[in-house]
Specification:
Elements: H1 12-23, H2 26-33, H3 37-51, E1 56-59, E2 62-65, H4 67-97, E3 100-106, H5 107-114, H6 118-124, E4 129-135, E5 148-153, E6 160-171, H7 173-179, E7 198-202, H8 211-214, E8 225-229, H9 232-240, E9 245-249, H10 250-259, E10 263-264, E11 271-280, H11 289-311
Parallel strand pairs: 3-4, 3-5, 7-8, 7-9
Antiparallel strand pairs: 1-2, 5-11, 6-9, 6-10, 6-11
Length: 333
């Protein structure tokens, strides 16, 4: 039997062809893959070149299969359906063999964002046994083999992005009412921007991380009252209790900003670092199917919070590709 790789340039062209033939439309196939219609046309043109025959008759009313196209579509549909059935069977076997999903996540993220959604998550994936491995401070790498972990990193093509790294100085509504917002280095008029405020600082970070909010001089702790913690979850809890101002990573505080338990504490807007909070697996091979589904669920709920925070003017609006495209193993563009 002749190997398929010797007959066509790329298997992705077959996927594109099958979608276009099934829909009878290049534009609808483009929506399936979240790519442009010209990209669909290029993939099909390459497949036609590999085969040596036209597969579609293009017209104003859409794309109609030629006789050769009908022959190939029947074979492609049968083959892809059999592959889909095999994948579904293997997925089911995998989850029966090992329903435990290990999540290595920030203690603050779990405590302040995920716990309130845990019941719904569990109901959505009743077969999953969730085991949480919590990290108190700043993580620089993921140790051990886990199914889902968070890591702040530079953007990586094809990565599963939970949220952009956006930092919002936050406090409780009561603290804001009693102390007002930090005016910031551009509006301080010679006064100490930190004066009269209490700051909740993560000991893993240098105090210069506050420079965009307070200015370089005040960020070294020259004014105000400073409390340091080794656990970021404790910092956010203290901020919600009215103990002071914290730097709030949007991936942790989005839900609290949305609900009003936390409010922006700075007259500026927010700090965008250009990095992202990524979800990844450290187990050998690709992320397990159930872990993928759970990661998709978490990303979708986070996106809802980020959009709601943007509607309140408390954070940036993030334009994402549709979630399914993050998992496109064929890299169709």
């Amino acid at each position: 039997m002749t190997e398929l790789s010797h007959l066509i340039s790329s298997p992705k062209s077959l996927l594109v062809f099958e979608a276009a033939a099934r829909h009878g439309s290049f534009s609808r196939a483009a929506k399936d893959f979240n790519i442009s219609q010209p990209s669909i046309s290029r993939n099909i043109a390459q497949l036609e070149q590999d085969i040596g025959q036209p597969l579609f008759v293009r017209g104003a009313g859409g794309a109609t299969l030629t006789e050769a196209g009908q022959f190939l579509f029947a074979a492609a549909s049968d083959g892809l359906n059999r592959i889909a059935d095999a994948v579904a069977t293997l997925r089911a076997q995998s989850e029966v063999q090992s329903p435990e999903i290990v999540l290595s996540l920030s203690n603050a993220f779990v405590t302040n964002w995920l716990v309130s959604r845990l019941a719904v998550l569990s109901d959505s994936f009743p077969e999953a046994v969730l085991r949480f491995d919590l990290v108190a401070g700043t993580r620089k790498k993921v140790a051990g083999e886990v199914d889902i972990a968070t890591l702040i990193t530079d953007p990586t093509p094809g990565a599963i992005v939970l949220a952009p790294e956006v930092i919002v100085p936050v406090c409780s509504p009561d603290y804001l009412s009693a102390h007002g917002r930090v005016t910031g280095p551009d509006a301080m008029s010679g006064e100490n921007a930190a004066a009269g405020h209490r700051f909740l600082h993560l000991s893993d970070h240098e105090k210069t991380i506050w420079a965009p909010v307070l200015g370089k001089a005040d960020a070294i702790g020259a004014g105000g009252i400073w409390h340091e913690f080794s656990d970021y979850a404790a910092i956010i809890q203290a901020a919600m209790d009215g103990s002071g101002i914290a730097l709030g990573w949007l991936s942790v505080v989005a839900g609290s900003l949305r609900s009003g338990r936390l409010v922006p504490a700075w007259q500026g807007r927010w700090i965008e670092t250009g990095r992202v909070v990524q979800l990844l697996s450290t187990r050998p091979g690709p992320m397990r199917p159930m872990a993928q589904d759970i990661a998709r669920w978490i990303c979708a709920r986070m996106n809802e919070d980020i959009e709601a925070v943007a509607d309140l003017g408390a954070g940036p609006r993030v334009h994402r590709r549709p979630q399914h495209n993050m998992w496109d193993g064929f890299g169709i563009r």
